[in-house]
């Protein structure tokens, strides 16, 4: 049991490390002045794949924990890893999970900021388009309160 749980935790940490590396790349892309949409889309797909793999590994760990008679949740996980001699590996896994969660939250905030900036820019363009000096025919339209210089 201790060998299989230790190997499973090691696999989780490797997957978490790969996810964290991906989240750090995403953060750098989001911080750039020019956004590379295709690369961000690729990263989003890779994140989904990594999260699915992590979920599968975690589901397996929980099943093993339950099958061995340990309580569900963090208390049972702590007891199982302590009895298996891999408590330090479990704590490292938890720390890496918290790091991934922190980075993902930061990236979410950066995305929200970008979306807000984009919306303000679109609103500005929309407002400017409504106040255009040119009509649909391309001719200068009459503007109230302005001098008509075409006379």
From TrEMBL:
It comes from the Bacteria. One of its GO terms (biological process) is bacterial-type flagellum assembly. Keywords: Bacterial flagellum biogenesis, Cell projection, Cilium, Coiled coil, Flagellum. It comes from Billgrantia gudaonensis. This is Flagella synthesis protein FlgN. The lineage of its organism: Bacteria, Pseudomonadati, Pseudomonadota, Gammaproteobacteria, Oceanospirillales. It holds the Pfam family FlgN. Required for the efficient initiation of filament assembly. Residues 6-36 form a coiled coil. The keyword Hydrolase does not apply. Belongs to the FlgN family.
